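Notes from the 1:1 (GR / supervisor)

We went over the backlog. Supervisor wanted to see one worked example end to end before approving the batch request, so GR pasted a single chain during the call. The sequence is below; no edits were made to it. Supervisor asked that the structure be written out right there so they could see what the output format looks like.
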Amino acid sequence: MGMLKTICYKSDVNKTLQLLEFEALFNQTQLKNDSHNITGFLVKRNDVFFQVLEGNPIIIDTVYEDIKKDRRHSNITEFLNTSIPQLSFKTFDIGYSVIKDVDTLYSLQQFVANLNQQKHENSPLFLEIIEGLLSDH
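Structure output shown during the call:
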């Protein structure tokens, strides 16, 4: 498999975006990341995006550069940008996940809680952010 990398960030959703633009964003993200063998997820919760990308470092860095230029969000807060020994989210879903409802967010929370019990790298951080999103009404 070689080296792997993860990038994890949170950002503010551009409030002028319409529903159809979100659908387009979600579909593009899923297709692009699946085709690049990127695992992870994108969560939209109220006015926040939370994204985890993991995979080949060159691809991850390239995709992240595009993300940073995207006008559909602002105020990127980067939590992780680091190499990892293994993928965390390969088994969460087939490929890359886009999470737009609270039920799926709860199942992600359970998945990450399980990773956390297995002492999986970075899982405490993911859990903290996800729980923050769930409690944020």
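Supervisor's comment: The longest helix spans residues 19-35.
Batch request approved.
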